[in-house]
Specification:
The chain is mainly α. The chain is about 75% helix and about 0% strand. The chain has helices at about 5-20, 30-40, 45-65, 70-105, 120-135, 145-155, 155-160, 165-175, 180-215, 220-250, 270-275, 280-290, 300-315, 320-345, 350-370, 370-380, 395-410, 415-425, 430-450.
Length: about 475
């Protein structure tokens, strides 16, 4: 079930909210858990059983790890917990990738399994991993109540797209959290704005990307238009879902951490990754990079640590070589910045911003390619290789058609709109308090019309 769908917006979430706020305090997590299981099982019920198995495993291992934490058995149970979680993720997400790679190298034709990828498995696996590792480290106490742990892992607001919420961040909120009209209003506002980013901007840009792929009249500038459109599309698609998740979490009394902080205003690739998908970056930092020694080791090991983290980051995103290359691409850039490039970037704000956006746009061409062959063809065509004409008739047509949404997306990817709204609300507080709910309701009406019309409405991160 998509957040940006009529069943979710007008059937599922209203029923959940009624049940949740009608339930006594001690049953709110139970309502949240049952609702999350219904949400997850909506399309493929069998995958809910897989998630339940993962939750049970995490619950049992958490208790065992805490009980034997100061004994050798504690590490054994930690290894078993991490191993079983990664084995489940590896089996469902990477089996066919390894088979196809083996076939390519060996020349054999081992049949693929055709295993379907359970939605959200990358996200809830990492949440369980962080929970059991934090229990072993003594950062959190093992959760005795299975309902509370299950509600944490399966919580539908952030289940399919993150942010990756750590148990330590909401441990206390699982036991006791505050519900208020003010918090609910903030959550609804954040949800609707995220929905707007998804439906009105990301979907339109996604349509343009699909038009480009289907076109027989490609040109160098059309390739660049596609690359820019996808770069904006993935930001508004993913950050829109993060906004919706954070907003829904606030309605239910949870404070999820931010996942995006205007990454396209960055002045270096290092800064970009401090602002993009922040929950994933901090997860790899705390559970892979620092345990490997971080930057407190020799320079060779430091660079090794960077490459390991980015190899895993790319592989986490998808079972294909272009994702691995995408991750290693950023590893190379980060190492170059740390070695010598950063001192040159600091000399000009304009040039360093152009540098970041150029490299990020190229990276997302790799990211969105069907395979590395397509990625290389697209990048080569962007620079005029392969007798591709500079411009085409379709380029000008679609540039005119999508110019407004591209301009809105470019401006919307900066802090400018937020600062402008903040200034207006400060100067005209009373008027703003009247107009804001009218705007929110108007946005919902417009977006509902788009959804009823059956407009283009995919979600990119279902792939991961």
């Amino acid at each position: 079930m998509l957040f940006s769908s009529i069943p979710f917006l007008y059937y599922f979430i209203p029923c959940v909210l009624i049940l949740y706020f009608a339930a006594p305090k001690q049953l709110k997590n139970t309502v949240l858990l049952i609702s999350s299981l219904v949400f997850y099982a909506w399309d493929r019920p069998k995958f809910a059983l897989l998630m339940i198995a993962a939750i049970v495993s995490g619950y049992v291992f958490g208790l065992l790890i805490e009980k034997f934490r100061d004994k050798p058995l504690g590490k054994v149970f930690l290894v078993l917990s991490v191993g079983s979680s990664l084995a489940m993720l590896g089996f469902f997400k990477y089996t066919d990738f390894f088979i196809s790679s083996f076939n390519s190298v060996s020349g054999l034709s081992v049949p693929l399994t055709g295993i379907a990828l359970p939605i959200g498995i990358s996200f809830y696996t990492f949440q369980i991993l962080s929970y059991t590792v934090d229990v072993y480290r003594g950062d959190v106490a093992a959760q005795r109540n299975p309902i509370s742990l299950a509600a944490y892992v399966s919580m539908f607001p952030q289940l399919i797209a993150g942010p990756i919420v750590r148990y330590s961040d909401i441990e206390k909120q699982l036991v006791s959290r505050t519900h208020s009209f003010e918090g609910a209003a903030q959550g609804i506002r954040r949800f609707v704005l995220g929905l707007g980013k998804k439906i009105l901007i990301a979907n339109a840009l996604g349509e343009l990307c699909d038009v480009f792929r289907a076109s027989d009249d490609k040109s160098v500038m059309f390739y660049w238009l596609y690359a820019v459109a996808f770069t904006l599309h993935i930001y508004f698609d993913f950050s829109g879902y993060s906004d919706m998740a954070i907003g829904m979490g606030k309605v239910f009394g949870f404070d999820f951490l931010e996942n995006f902080d205007y990454p396209y205003i960055s002045g270096s690739v290092t800064e970009f990754w401090r602002r993009w998908h922040m929950s994933l970056g901090s997860w790899f930092r705390d559970y892979v990079y620092i345990p490997l020694g971080g930057n407190r080791v020799s320079k060779i090991k430091w660079f090794r640590n960077i490459f390991v983290v980015w190899l895993l980051t790319g592989f986490w995103h998808g079972a294909a070589w272009n994702f691995i290359v995408w991750g290693l691409y950023f590893a190379v850039l980060l190492v170059l910045e740390k070695l010598w490039l950063k001192k040159y970037l600091d000399r000009s704000k304009v040039l360093r911003h152009i540098y970041v956006m150029f490299l990020v746009i190229i990276s997302f061409v790799i990211f969105n390619a069907a395979d590395m062959g397509e990625a290389m063809r697209y990048i080569a065509a962007m620079f005029g290789a392969g007798d591709v004409p500079a411009v085409s008739a379709e380029l000008f047509y679609y540039l005119r058609s999508y110019a407004v949404v591209i301009a809105i997306a470019v401006i919307g990817s900066t802090p400018f709109p937020k600062k402008l709204v903040s200034k207006i609300s400060e100067k005209h507080e009373k008027l703003f308090n009247i107009i804001e709910p009218i705007v929110i309701i108007g946005l919902m009406v417009v977006m509902t019309a788009y959804l009823v019309d059956g407009s283009f409405n995919p979600f990119l991160y279902f792939r991961f």
